[in-house]
Design a protein that fits this description.
Elements: E1 2-4, E2 21-24, H1 25-28, H2 31-41, E3 51-55, H3 61-73, E4 79-84, H4 89-96, E5 101-105, E6 114-120, H5 129-140, E7 153-155, H6 160-168, E8 180-184, H7 194-200, E9 204-208, H8 227-236, E10 240-244, E11 251-255, E12 260-261, H9 263-276, E13 284-288, H10 293-301, E14 305-309, H11 313-323, E15 327-329, E16 335-337, H12 346-360, H13 364-368, E17 377-383, H14 390-395, H15 397-410, E18 414-420, E19 426-433, H16 436-454
Helix pairs in contact: 2-3, 2-5, 9-12, 15-16
């Protein structure tokens, strides 16, 4: 049984969650907060270099970009506006143009009314906890802030082409001529370049949810709602489909039979291809505690090593650096590779999977047949009171007894994973076992107890 709680690094931090700042756009992102965020971010990023800002399609994004840029320019900073773009374009362009850092305005897979801000340093990496604490302390100050912004903002929408070129350079076969592919662009960041990217490689592209629309982003589409793309792949008789989330740093694939190819399968298949070429140091993959037990057992049987981390791409990133691993990621389709400096990129992942299929002369469904057999797994999001702390989970005898009962019954052929969401008042209850009936029973029972105790 895995029970994940907050880390010491997050203590005393109010505004920053597990992945930047995220919440209801209308109430959280006031003009004063955004200007202060820009102003204090300037203090932790190298001086006299521009800062880049990208955004997804949410209706609140333009206002957030403007106020944030005002706060940055108040310190004399030059700001480059990238416009609509995938999150991974920001770190790539930071490094390419030797910028001081950058921001991505997006709430990723969250609903349209939410928004968020991810901050990157001059290395294109997520901001360190130490730097986040400095900014967070500034945001907590009660003094009124007025930006007195200078006019030092430059539109650089043209730089998106540099990102597209960098993606194509990562694959060995640049001719997907005649390959039928479906793209679910999720009404979000992926609409900025998804069609043009795959069409430039010669693929026969069918796109759904393909226009930027902040009212529809993530609504019953994309990597968290796969029914529509599964139907489209089957109806068009395509070889594969790729569904992205709101800011395109995640991707879930669909094979020609409509089967889901999630992050675990992607790691196994991509990792196997690298292993065959002796290009995977120590045959090591890095994933999180959410990854399927069937994946872990199959990879170990293949002679590999699977490192598990707490949930979150920053945790995967940290262990990959420590272990000098070249491939890692999350079941959700957030995959990190040294190809682009460990920046999660849904388009890079989609191209790599396509490339492996082309090199092997296999359709994705044949490639997926070579993957592991997943253990039945069920994740239930249980709404809980905002007053519930991490300590409350371990102090509830009734809840803990239900977990111990499940753990005892499943033994080594199953597990329970419990985690409080870092962005929403939810308790994530995940159960997996070799027996599907056991998964259904314990996921339902534990979720019911959690709802009774913590609501």
């Amino acid at each position: 049984m895995d029970l994940v709680s907050g880390t010491d690094e997050q203590k005393n931090i109010i505004f920053f969650g597990t992945d930047g700042i995220r919440g209801k756009a209308e109430t959280l992102f006031t003009a004063e907060l955004l200007q202060k965020l820009g102003f204090f971010s300037d203090k932790v990023l190298p001086q006299k270099k521009p800062i880049l800002i990208g955004q997804d399609s949410r209706l609140s994004s333009p206002k957030i970009v403007k106020e944030l840029a005002d706060g940055l320019m108040a310190s004399g900073r030059e700001v480059w506006l990238l416009g609509l773009c995938p999150t991974p374009a920001v770190p790539l362009l930071i490094k390419k143009y030797d910028a001081a850092g950058g921001f991505m305005i997006s709430a990723s897979h969250n609903p349209p009314e939410d928004n968020g801000i991810k901050i990157f340093d001059c290395n294109g990496e997520k901001l360190s906890s130490q730097k986040k604490k400095i900014i967070d302390k500034g945001l907590q100050e009660k003094s009124h802030f007025s930006s007195h912004a200078r006019n030092n903002c430059i539109c650089r929408y043209d730089l998106l082409k540099e990102y597209e070129k960098s993606l194509i350079q990562t694959i060995e076969i640049e001719d997907f001529k005649g390959t039928p592919i479906v793209l679910d662009l999720c009404w979000g960041s992926a609409t900025a370049c998804g069609e043009s990217l795959f069409q430039s490689l010669g693929a026969d592209v069918t796109s759904i949810n393909s226009k930027a629309n902040g009212k529809k982003i993530n609504v019953n589409c994309g990597s968290t709602h796969l029914e529509e793309i599964q139907k489209a792949v089957l109806e068009t008789k395509s070889e594969m489909g790729f569904a992205f989330d709101g800011d395109a740093d995640r991707m879930i694939a669909i094979d020609g039979r409509g089967r889901v190819v999630d992050g675990d399968n992607i790691l196994y298949l991509w990792g196997s291809a690298l292993k065959e070429k002796n290009a995977l140091p120590e045959n090591r993959l890095v994933s999180t505690v959410m990854s399927n037990l069937g994946f872990e057992k199959a990879w170990i049987a293949k002679g590999g090593i699977l490192e598990r981390t707490p949930v979150g791409d920053q945790n995967v990133h940290k262990v990959m650096v420590e272990k000098k691993a070249t491939l890692g990621g999350e079941q959700s389709g957030h995959i990190l590779s040294t190809i682009n400096g460990l920046s999660g990129d849904g388009f890079l992942t989609a191209l790599q999977i396509s490339n492996i299929c082309k090199i092997k002369g296999l359709k994705l469904e044949r490639l997926l047949d070579q993957s592991f057999k997943a253990y039945p797994q069920k994740l239930i999001n249980v709404p809980i009171s905002t007053r519930i702390s991490d300590g409350s989970l371990s102090q509830s005898r009734k809840f803990q007894n239900s977990l111990k009962e499940a753990e005892l019954q499943m033994g080594e052929e199953g597990r329970v994973f419990i985690r409080k969401s870092g962005t929403e008042p939810l308790l994530r209850v995940m159960v997996e076992s070799i027996d599907e009936s056991i998964v259904e029973f314990w996921s339902s029972k534990i979720s019911k107890v959690a709802s009774e105790v913590f609501n």
